[in-house]
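Narrative of accomplishments. A recurring question from our advisory board has been how the design workflow behaves on a single, concrete structure rather than in aggregate. To address it, we present the structure tokens for one chain from the evaluation set, followed by the sequence designed for it. No filtering or post-editing was applied between the two.
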């Protein structure tokens, strides 16, 4: 089920019937862990034999922090149901001093968009440990720690609403400490700066991209190298009063970023299409070609003229002004490498998986091929044989000698092919990709990039190569383990001896 291929400089393993694991980048190694452990004493390598013994000592005594300085980046192609198990292990992230932007409940309604800022590191500490200890009123030697997770979950985290292109709010579902990773500082022309890993995604003018993909970022020694022409990214915005169509930049964004037309913009704002067309002419946006009538079709009243007759004057009560906050496009001015630093990541409520940090619109770390932006190919996982439900382990499976292996593949393939036909029919009928993809089953293949340090990778291998894990993710874990073994042989040897569970037969 796993086939190694020589694809220099990358390590590549074919997994299952159509999947793969590819090592994209690696930084560190066994000696990096040794140097990190000995930095306290101001010494480095003491020869291969002593260095290997130190690696074994660290793992056998539970000292795992030095291994956080070695970082792997993988390109994974796997079925969606495998990816769901995989993504319990976080990937790209932001530095601990990154500030999250929260709003008070009544603030936006009153037009007050003054953000309350809290660093990710402080948010994580309060999430896990609660507030600072308070001495007991009667016994000063005893402290009380008030839990804060419920209150933190209720805070309004600023977020980009991608359907209306305005800034709204979401809530934090969880916060993760993702170890120490190489961190870069991204400086914008307006003075904003955010610190993150190179594989963290941001909203650029041409869509969601990693910092590395958008800027060509590379690390050369201790210096960050990138393209001369840097792109613009979405940043914390400016206040705009109702109605939104009076703002030229917002209206332009609706057509160029979200792919909307006059009808959809009018429906979004609750006005007629003529109002949108009028303001498009006022703003000089006549070169934008929004959707109109299909070829061969025309309005029912084409050529008809009307005489305006005013029967009465309608007097409307003035409506209170509603102020929106819309993002701005700010160009990156420079990128600087800061070294290895502790990193964190958030999980937020959908359907838009982004949040505002340090004044920049940033995405969750999960970097998967999105079926909102691209059409999905007909690629489904087809198991070589079907397994029966394990009667002892309710969440597992076992070999099923009594199963009719001649009928089950046909039933399965008929189902997944029917799902894909439904997906194609929905697209042909005009349904949006983000809605049509709901017809696809979890056997559909997807792709994503995954960045992880050696400490977290050992935890992943321990969990996902366990006999209780599903077979399909175990074969991916085995491919990952082979790459880990090749890149950090000393650590793998010590891990197999002291930290790993008994390996499973695949």
């Amino acid at each position: 089920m796993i086939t190694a291929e020589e694809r220099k400089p990358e390590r590549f393993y074919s997994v299952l019937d159509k999947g793969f694991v590819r090592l994209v980048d690696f930084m560190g190694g066994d000696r990096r862990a040794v140097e990190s452990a000995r930095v306290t004493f101001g010494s480095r390598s003491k020869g291969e034999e002593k260095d290997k013994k130190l690696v074994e000592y660290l793992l056998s005594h539970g000292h795992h922090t030095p291994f956080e300085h070695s970082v792997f980046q993988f390109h994974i192609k796997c079925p969606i149901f495998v990816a769901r198990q995989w993504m319990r292990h976080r990937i790209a992230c932001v530095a601990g001093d990154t500030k999250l932007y929260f709003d008070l409940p009544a603030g936006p309604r009153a037009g007050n968009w003054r953000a309350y800022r809290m660093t990710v590191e402080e948010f994580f500490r309060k999430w896990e440990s609660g507030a600072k200890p308070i001495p007991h009123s009667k016994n000063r030697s005893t402290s009380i720690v008030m839990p804060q997770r419920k209150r933190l979950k209720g805070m309004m985290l600023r977020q980009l609403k991608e359907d209306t292109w305005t800034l709204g709010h979401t809530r934090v579902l969880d916060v993760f400490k993702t170890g120490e990773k190489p961190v870069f500082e991204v400086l914008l022309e307006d003075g904003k700066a955010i610190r993150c890993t190179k594989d963290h995604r941001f909203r650029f003018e041409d869509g969601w991209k990693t910092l590395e993909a958008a800027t060509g970022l590379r690390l050369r020694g201790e210096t960050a190298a990138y393209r001369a022409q840097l792109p613009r990214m979405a940043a914390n915005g400016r206040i705009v009063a109702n109605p939104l169509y009076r703002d030229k930049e917002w209206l332009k964004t609706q057509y160029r970023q979200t792919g909307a037309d006059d009808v959809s913009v009018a429906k979004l704002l609750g006005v007629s299409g003529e109002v949108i067309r009028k303001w498009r002419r006022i703003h000089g946006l006549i070169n934008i070609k929004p959707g109109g009538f299909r070829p061969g079709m025309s309005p029912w009243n084409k050529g008809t003229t009307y005489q305006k007759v005013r029967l009465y004057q309608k007097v409307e009560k003035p409506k209170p002004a509603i102020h929106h906050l819309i993002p701005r496009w700010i160009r990156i001015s420079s990128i600087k490498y800061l070294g290895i630093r502790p990193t964190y990541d958030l999980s937020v409520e959908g359907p838009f998986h982004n949040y505002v940090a340090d004044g920049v619109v940033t995405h969750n770390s999960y970097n998967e091929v999105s079926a909102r932006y691209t059409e999905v190919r007909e690629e489904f996982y087809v198991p070589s044989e079907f397994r029966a439900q394990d009667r002892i382990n309710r969440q597992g499976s076992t070999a099923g000698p009594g199963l009719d292996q001649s009928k089950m593949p046909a039933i399965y393939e008929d189902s997944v092919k029917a799902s894909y036909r439904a997906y194609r029919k929905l697209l042909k009928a005009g349904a949006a990709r983000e809605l049509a993809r709901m017809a696809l089953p979890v056997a559909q293949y997807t792709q994503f990039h995954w960045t992880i340090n050696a400490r977290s990778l050992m935890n992943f291998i321990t969990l996902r190569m366990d006999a209780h894990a599903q077979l399909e993710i175990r074969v991916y874990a085995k491919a990952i383990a082979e790459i880990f073994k090749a890149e950090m042989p000393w650590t793998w040897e010590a891990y197999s001896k002291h930290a790993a569970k008994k390996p499973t037969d695949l």
